[in-house]
Amino acid sequence: MIEITHFQRKKRANSNHSIESYFKAIRDLQPSDIRITEKVAKFLSSGFFRRFYIAVEAIFNQKDINHVTGDIHFANFFLTKKKNLLTIHDCGFLKRISGLKFKIVKYFWYTLPAKRTSFITVNSEATKKDLLTYIKFPESKIKVIYIFIPEIHKPFSKKFNKEKPVILQIGTAPNKNIERVAEALIGINCTFIILGKLSQETTKILENCKIDYRNINKSVSDEDVAKLYQQCDIVSFASTFEGFGMPIIEANATGRVVVTSKTTSMPEIAANAAELVNPFDIKSIKTGFLKVINDDVYRNQLITNGFENSKRFDKEQIASQYYNLYREIYNTNNH
After folding, report:
1. Are residues 49 and 135 in the same domain?
2. Which structural domain range is residue 193 located in?
């Protein structure tokens, strides 16, 4: 029996808890010779003393393998290095800061945690490549393990509305690029549905562009999100940066055409199952939307490709990859 601890962050109110849901499923799918205990941090990751407490508390919850599942990378500072596994979901925050703050975050969330672990998992080749620009770590010990598609996202038939398609945007963070997408949609008869809190600046841009939009600014259930995919015609995901890109494969699994970016992880995740655009070029984004709206043959081919692409993100297969890695770490330490 291999005993493992999953060290997880404390949830923030009204925030995305996809990390927690993902690793719960990974735990549930492990065979009987793996026993995983979930250890949730007592405090939110905020302030020096709370973070220090999280790292110290972890000492008393060590097992055969200690897996820090994301966000609270610093939780491994005082753990036994050869037993440690660290999951890093992306390096996006480092791209938005500079100066002293950049140096502090880079050291305490990336450089030092990497020195204290035997393996790192990331969710795309793009994230692996990005991470290696910030830290020195053996490339062979960075394992790419994709995120699986939640079972709630299943094929749902809907006639495409060419006259006024419903375009769904998941997320409103700065990298989601909503301002450029809004400008690209000028003159395109559509309904733009945006899930997430909008800033005053973004709201003003949407109104100036005279777009028929609806903002869902509240916590919604997984079932409600699945319904949004089912009810839309196009999923917009023209982000400037993504470590993975869940909406791409969730749309693929539902049978919705996707317009996404040809940067960072998105071409890797989308493969041949999305219209790829330059997220920094408004004309490119507009052309992408018009192509999937007007070209029936092309749109239907992307949807067909999407169903095939979604097979790469099978839950059992991904859980098995974690099992194999856990076994590798355990066998290395016990032989």
Report:
1. yes
2. 166-312
pLDDT tens, the chain, 335 aa long: 999 999 999 987 655 557 888 999 999 999 999 999 999 999 999 999 999 999 999 999 999 999 999 999 999 999 999 999 999 999 988 998 999 999 999 999 999 999 999 999 999 999 999 999 999 999 999 999 999 999 999 999 999 999 999 999 999 999 999 999 999 999 999 999 999 999 999 999 999 999 999 999 888 888 999 999 999 999 999 999 999 999 999 999 999 999 999 999 999 999 999 999 999 999 999 999 999 999 999 999 999 999 999 999 999 999 999 999 999 999 999 87
Identity of the residue numbered 56: V
Domain count of the chain?
Answer: 2
- Token code pair at residue 330: 């355990």
Would the pTM of this model clear 0.70, i.e. be above it? Answer: yes
In this structure, what is the dihedral angle of CA atoms 19, 226, 264, 279, given to the nearest 10 degrees? -140
- Kindly state whether residues 7 and 142 are assigned to the same domain: yes
